[in-house]
Write a structure and sequence with these properties.
Layout: H1 3-21, H2 27-32, E1 38-45, E2 49-50, H3 54-64, E3 69-72, E4 79-80, E5 85-92, H4 93-121, E6 130-132, H5 142-151, E7 165-167, H6 169-175, H7 178-188, E8 195-199, H8 202-211, E9 215-219, H9 223-233, E10 238-242, H10 250-254, E11 260-262, H11 265-268, E12 275-282
Parallel strand pairs: 6-11, 7-8, 8-9, 9-10, 10-11
Antiparallel strand pairs: 1-5, 1-12, 2-4, 3-5
Helix pairs in contact: 1-3, 3-4, 4-5, 6-7, 7-8, 8-9
Length: 283
């Protein structure tokens, strides 16, 4: 996905989030603020972590009013500390109040993912194994969550179903077996597409290798089975392991020698990073 497409998609999704939060008007803000008054508010970090999503945070406000100005004291990928000032926003107080929740929802969620990803990626340092995300993302948040994974030091697996061939258990069942599924995928997909196959035991590993799969995903196999599978594959296909990957077991999985480890937890289980807008006042 190119940068222009990403920007257009991000703007659309941000606007939809704003419509969800402001269906007609911000009744509370309009009640206490009847006209435009210039104000300033501080973006404050309340928990140690990795920041991600500052551009998205800013875009929420500029879509409401292009005159809002933000001076950031950090950038995406930076470590931030509890109590650190991350930036200062200046603009119409009504806009600062109305955009606050949506902007913080994005920034907290994305920073939480980047923080968790950084902690997991650190466990793979020096192993040669890459950490991948999955499609287990929040609906309508994928473009933001996968970006946050990259900021945290992880890598993106396929973006969506149009982005690559991944033959999972139900595809294999529908096709009638591993070999037939791979054959049909090669026949249908452009030759530039890699064919990845999800396998659950050594018999399926052997079928996938013989069928000419490019990537073999070892799904929910025991470490002992995975080791036998990697030894059998012996470089004839790239290897990925998946299924209940946690910070507690990822180092053991990397020691097996797989090329990739994918973890849905990067996006579906990362807690938010606590960030607030504080000290709003007129200027």
């Amino acid at each position: 996905m190119n940068k222009i497409t990403q920007t257009l998609q991000a703007d659309y999704l941000i606007l939809e989030a704003l419509k969800e939060d402001i269906s007609s008007e911000d009744v509370t803000t309009n009640a206490v603020m009847r006209e435009a008054v210039k104000g300033e508010v501080t973006l404050l970090c309340k928990q140690d972590g990795i920041v991600a999503g500052l551009d998205v945070f800013e875009r929420v406000f500029t879509l409401l009013d292009e005159k809002v100005k933000i001076e950031f004291c950090c950038k995406d990928g930076d470590e931030v500390k509890n109590g650190q000032v991350m930036g200062v926003l200046t603009g119409d107080i009504r806009v600062l109040l109305s955009g606050e929740r949506v902007a913080l929802n994005y920034l907290q969620r994305m920073s939480g993912i980047a923080t968790y990803t950084r902690s997991v990626a650190a466990l793979l340092k020096g192993t040669g194994t890459k950490l991948l995300d999955t499609r287990k993302t929040t609906p309508n948040m994928r473009i933001f969550e996968k970006y946050a994974v990259r900021v945290g030091g992880g890598y993106n697996h396929r973006y969506n179903l149009s982005d690559g061939v991944l033959l999972k258990d139900n595809h294999i069942g529908a096709a009638g077996g591993v070999a037939e599924a791979v054959r049909m995928a090669k026949e249908y997909a452009p030759f530039v597409r890699k064919i990845e196959v999800e396998v659950e035991n050594l018999d399926m590993v052997k079928e996938a290798v013989e069928a000419g799969a490019d990537i073999i995903m070892l799904d929910n196999m025991s470490p002992e089975e995975m080791q036998k599978a990697v030894t059998y594959i012996d470089g004839r296909a790239q290897t990925e392991c998946s299924g209940n990957v946690t910070k507690e077991n990822i180092e053991r999985l990397a020691a097996i020698g797989v090329d990739y480890i994918s973890s849905g937890a990067l996006t579906h289980s990362a807690p938010i990073l606590d960030i607030s807008l504080k000290n709003l006042h007129t200027v």
